[in-house]
């Protein structure tokens, strides 16, 4: 037949391998573009997003204090200390309970982000204040860049001071890989490892 190119088995295999690789790379390259567009469309954060994880409540206390400066922003908290303790911290700080969105579906840092994506998208949030401890921020920023960025949501990080040492490169690399897995499959891999 005219117009058809006959491919050898080797050429076909090459194209079948190359096509997904190009797709993955293109998708990952578009993340900075989506972050730039989100920053342009929403130059100021539209909500506060705090990652739970400590048992002492330092992040919650910092977030409650910070929320005073931005009374129109809703506050999203993913996992962490029990809800009655969180509500007391915010009530004592004079923050209305109606501003709080507490979510306990996350089992680790990657799922802190992935479980709330539908909520952020439903409310058309394109820019978040991201609050977590300073030792945890490098990993949180890496995950946020991929997970939030892939959804066209940018973030402004705010670190809570702590006396803990920074997390290992291994933890960051593992969660970057899990974030990429989530982008392409919707699966976080959380069930394959203990929660961290």
Strand order of the largest sheet: 3-2-1-4-5
CATH arch. level architecture: 3-Layer(aba) Sandwich
CATH domain fold name: Rossmann fold
Characterize the overall form.
elongated
Structural class: alpha/beta
Structure characterization notes:
There is one protein chain. Helices cover 49% and strands 14% of the residues. It is an alpha/beta fold and 196 residues long. The protein has a single domain (45-192), classed as HUPs (Rossmann fold), CATH 3.40.50.620. It has a five-stranded parallel sheet, sandwiched between helices. Helix 1 (9-41) crosses helix 6 (137-150). The relative contact order is 0.15. The model has no long low-confidence stretch (mean pLDDT 90).
Layout of SSEs?
Elements: H1 9-41, E1 47-51, H2 58-67, E2 74-78, H3 83-92, E3 100-103, H4 109-114, H5 117-122, E4 127-133, H6 137-150, E5 154-160, H7 169-185
Helix pairs in contact: 1-6, 6-7
Keywords: Membrane, Transmembrane, Transmembrane helix
Domain DUF218: 46-160
Protein name: YdcF family protein
Structure in a nutshell:
This protein has helices spanning 9-41, 58-67, 83-92, 109-114, 117-122, 137-150, 169-185; strands spanning 47-51, 74-78, 100-103, 127-133, 154-160. It has 196 residues and is α/β, with parallel strands linked by helices.
Search tags:
alpha/beta; 49% helix; 196 residues
């Amino acid at each position: 037949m005219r117009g058809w190119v006959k491919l050898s088995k080797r050429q076909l295999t090459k194209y079948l391998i190359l096509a997904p690789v190009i797709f993955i790379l293109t998708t990952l390259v578009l993340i900075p573009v989506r972050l730039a567009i989100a920053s342009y469309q929403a130059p100021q954060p539209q909500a506060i997003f705090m990652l739970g994880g400590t048992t002492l409540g330092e992040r919650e206390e910092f977030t409650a204090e910070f929320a005073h400066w931005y009374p129109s922003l809703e506050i999203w908290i993913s996992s962490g200390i029990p809800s009655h303790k969180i509500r007391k911290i915010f009530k004592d700080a004079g923050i209305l309970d109606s501003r709080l969105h507490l979510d306990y579906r996350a089992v680790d840092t990657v799922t802190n982000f992935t479980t709330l994506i539908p909520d952020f998208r439903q409310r058309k949030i394109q820019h978040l204040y991201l609050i977590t401890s300073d030792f945890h921020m490098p990993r949180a920023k890496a995950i946020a860049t991929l997970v939030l960025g892939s959804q066209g949501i940018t973030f402004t990080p705010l670190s809570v001071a702590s006396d803990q040492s920074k997390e290992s490169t291994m933890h960051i690399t593992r969660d970057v890989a899990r974030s990429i897995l989530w982008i392409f499959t919707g699966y976080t891999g959380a069930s394959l490892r203990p929660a961290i």
